[in-house]
Amino acid sequence: MNNIIWFRNDLRLEHNLALSEAMLSSDSLEAVYIFPEKNKFFVGEAAQWYLHQSLMHLEGRLLKLGITLNVFIGNAADIFSKYIEKNGKKTTIFCNKSFNPIQLKIDQDVTVTLKQTKNLRYVGMDTVFDPNVIKTKANGIYKIFTPFSNTFSSLIFKKNFNFGSLNKTKKFTPVEKFTEISDLKLITNKSWSKKFTNFWKPGELNAINLMHAFLYKKIDLYSDNRDNILEQYTSKLSVSINFGEISIEYLFSEILKSFNDAAYKCDTNRHDFYRQLIWREFAKYSMFYNQESHLKSIYDYCDSEILWSGDDILFELWKQSKTGVNIVDASMKQLWNEGWMPNRARMISASFLTKNLGIHWNKGFKWFWDTLVDADLASNAMGWQWVSGTAPYSAQFSRIFNPHLQEKKFDPQNIYINKYLNQTNTIKPIVSVSSSAKEAKIRYQRIKLLQES
């Protein structure tokens, strides 16, 4: 059979159910990657640089198996229709299912277009569980993390992991290659391209090395230091997970294995990291049931103008690291230079934008979307709505980070700030931290009263 393996956010060979099944079932196999023409929330701009490199890495590994990778910009349904015209109606398109709302819409179009031939075949998925499986006792949807986490854990400890079997001895005859990864034009910002090579090593093999280095060395310092904004204490696996260079199921399985080891059974480092991985699953779960949560607040009344100033000048100063609040400016400088910053820095920066400056969270979300190499739609949306208090899983209106106190607690020796800021060029704070926090609470009280009336 002349079949297709459709790569999406699963840019790997190992632990890839769709690929292993496609290789087992095919006489001829071609790999395809499709970048939609309308890419508002498919892959952010900084992440496109990473995607280009990861695709290059994947292409090289596929070639060793005799599998050709062709890439396209356009409508997936139209592209696959042409393939079926050429290869025959029995052509099967193998892929792992994604629950990302953008990909779900693409898949829906493909399914409708190909409904007569039933060519699309899901094998694996990009979450540990289908969101429809995790329900409350009343068959409802979890809106809060802790009960979701408890149910998730009860299921995963019973799970039989199946990663497929990659037959590396099987070789295919390469088909015609008529596209190049450069055709996707993913690298548009040359200065970013030069900067990011100093901080990131895309590709499956690099991701596996990073994962092993963290799980068997760095994780022992995780619990005590994960809130420290010095990056060496974090796993930095988020971008590899986002593009599927490593399987999230495999990562969970490796953590669970260590729980069975007497030396690690009660180890808080591994349990805390395990809990953070569940947060990521919860973000995808929550977005599946709130498919516009990257566009608007889950509590829709929180989009009222009462809460947000809409001051474009303040927003630009925040983006350009010119707020005069050192911890915020250092965080935003790291983001621009490296395409990344630790979670604590993200929360501090987001809180300052939404609470102290009164800027709608969605503006910050969009900026992070285009400047983070690990920009995941669900995690980014959840992070912003969590900080802003606009969703059921957040502490509504009560959580306001004091950036000065955060600085003293998490960067007491100013190591982080001195690394990213020129301390000879000091800027007066653009708002009073204490006064702006009080004003935020007043706005929140007003919207709460309106909601209750």
Query: What share of residues is helical?
Result: 40-55%
CATH topology of the largest domain: DNA Cyclobutane Dipyrimidine Photolyase, subunit A, domain 3
Structural class: alpha/beta
Distance between the termini: 64 Å
Taken from the alpha-carbon principal axes, the silhouette is globular
Strand content: 5-15%
**What is the CATH superfamily of the largest domain?**
DNA Cyclobutane Dipyrimidine Photolyase, subunit A, domain 3
The CATH class of the largest domain, by name, is: Mainly Alpha
**Strand order, biggest sheet?**
3-2-1-4-5
CATH arch. level architecture of the largest domain:
Orthogonal Bundle
- State the order of secondary-structure elements, H for helix, E for strand: EHEHEHEHEHHHHHHHHHHHHHHH
Q: How many helices in DSSP terms?
A: 19
Describe, in plain words, how this protein is organized in 3D.
The chain is an alpha/beta fold and 453 residues long. The protein folds into three domains: 2-125, Rossmann fold (3-Layer(aba) Sandwich); 127-161 and 203-289, Serine Threonine Protein Phosphatase 5, Tetratricopeptide repeat, CATH 1.25.40; 300-452, DNA Cyclobutane Dipyrimidine Photolyase, subunit A, domain 3. 49% of the residues lie in helices and 7% in strands. The chain has a five-stranded parallel sheet, sandwiched between helices. Strand 1 (2-7), helix 1 (17-25) and strand 2 form a beta-alpha-beta unit. The longest helix is centred in the middle third of the chain and has 22 residues, at 268-289.
